[in-house]
Amino acid sequence: MKIIVTLTQELLQVKRVLKLVCLVLAAAPSFAAIKNSDTDKYTGLAYPPPIVWTPLKGYYFQGVAYLSWSSLQESNSSHFEIQLSTDGVNFSATGRVPAQSVSDRVMLYSFNDLKAAEGTNYYRVQYFDNDGHYQYSNTIVLNVLIKGINITSIYPGPFTDKVNVTVASETKAISRIMLYDNTGRMVASKETKLNKGITTLTVDRLEGLAKGIYIIKVQAGETSITQKLIK
Comparing 11-20, 134-143, 161-170, 216-225, which segment has the lowest mean pLDDT? Predict the structure, then answer.
């Protein structure tokens, strides 16, 4: 009789344990939808990542950091945020590229950054889907050494009443920016300062100029550089 009572008590205890296990399993989230709150990356065996992409690549040339990557497959994609750091630890956004929402073919992406400073620059890309999940790319290092002066961009193009010229300079310098028409006549001139690194120069009050091809010239000491632009 004592043996029967003991077995009955053990069976009841086993039932309680099984019931508790069933309750825990019922309350647990599915692997297909779980998201790791510590890293905010996709986890679980049954959840495919929303993007399959290639490593980030890049190079620096004449004041511009050229970045590129590609996706092999996407679903529910939102955008890419390009991030820059000078110490490899603290990153901040420097640009944004819209993503192809759904794709089962190779998509090529690129971004040109004018904010690279002289020295070591760390770049990475953060991918976001439409549900707020995200992933990071690999981090690349671009070492920037500016020599002389270079015009890295001119905008808008065509211009109307003003033109902005972004210049990369090896050192601080007093410079002059000049605008010539297609006959070689100087139609605008302005003295300004160049910072070490990137400086944006503006020439305004150009609304009275005729439409056509112009030449912009930036001179610092004995060094000068020219580029064509259109009004």
Answer: 11-20
Mean pLDDT of 153-173: 87
User: DSSP states of 197-226 as a string?
Assistant: EEEEEEE---TTSPSSEEEEEEEETTEEEE
Measured from the Cβ of residue 109, the count of other Cβ atoms closer than 10 Å reads 19
Check: pTM over 0.85? Answer yes or no: no
* Tokens at 206, concatenated: 């150009």
What is the residue-wise DSSP string for 39-100? T--B-SSS---SEEEPPPEEEEETTEEEEEEEEEEESSEEEEEEEEESSSS--EEEEEEEPP
Give me the domains of the chain, ranges plus CATH numbers: 53-144 (2.60.40.10), 149-230 (2.60.40.2550)
Token pair in block for residue 210: 């005729």
Compute the distance between CA of residue 29 and CA of residue 47 in angstroms, rounded to an integer: 12
> Terminus-to-terminus CA distance in the chain, angstroms?
105
H helix or E strand, kind and range, residue 180? strand 173-180
* Residue position matching structure tokens 């599915």: 30
